[in-house]
């Protein structure tokens, strides 16, 4: 029963964080702040969702596979965010400054 509640809490928090990241993508003014919102929320919401699913699976091969998926995403999500930001900077995209015309 406690494991089911822990799973429910992790899955709910992961879903809420995913929606907050989507809201950040919609509301923030420029590419860099949107990239920041998406990169942070995506990594943490995947961690919470995978943890909730691992609670549901128990100590089985499924939970090991979920951990391997999380480990892969833990390294690739921040790397992809860095590469996107670095490519945008090198191509000349400047960050938004307050008072600047869009």
How would you describe what is shown here?
This is Monovalent cation/H(+) antiporter subunit G. The chain crosses the membrane at residues 46-75. There is one protein chain. This protein is mostly helical and 102 residues long. It has one domain (2-90). The protein is 81% helix and 0% strand. It has 3 helices and no strands. The chain has helices at residues 2-27, 31-57, 61-90. α1 (2-27) runs antiparallel to α2 (31-57) and α2 runs antiparallel to α3 (61-90). The radius of gyration is 17 Å and the shape is elongated. The termini are far apart. 12% of the residues are buried. The model has no long low-confidence stretch (mean pLDDT 91).
Structure characteristics:
102 residues; mainly alpha
DSSP summary: helix tally? 3
Helix content: over 70%
**Structure class:** mainly alpha
Q: How many separate domains?
A: 1
Mean pLDDT level: 91
What is Rg?
17 Å
How many strand segments? 0
Strand/helix succession: HHH
Spatial separation of the terminal alpha carbons: 52 Å
Rough outline: elongated
The biggest sheet amounts to: none
GO molecular function, one term: sodium:proton antiporter activity
Protein name: Monovalent cation/H(+) antiporter subunit G
Keywords: Membrane, Transmembrane, Transmembrane helix
Task: Give the SSE layout.
Blueprint: H1 2-27, H2 31-57, H3 61-90
Helix pairs in contact: 1-2, 2-3
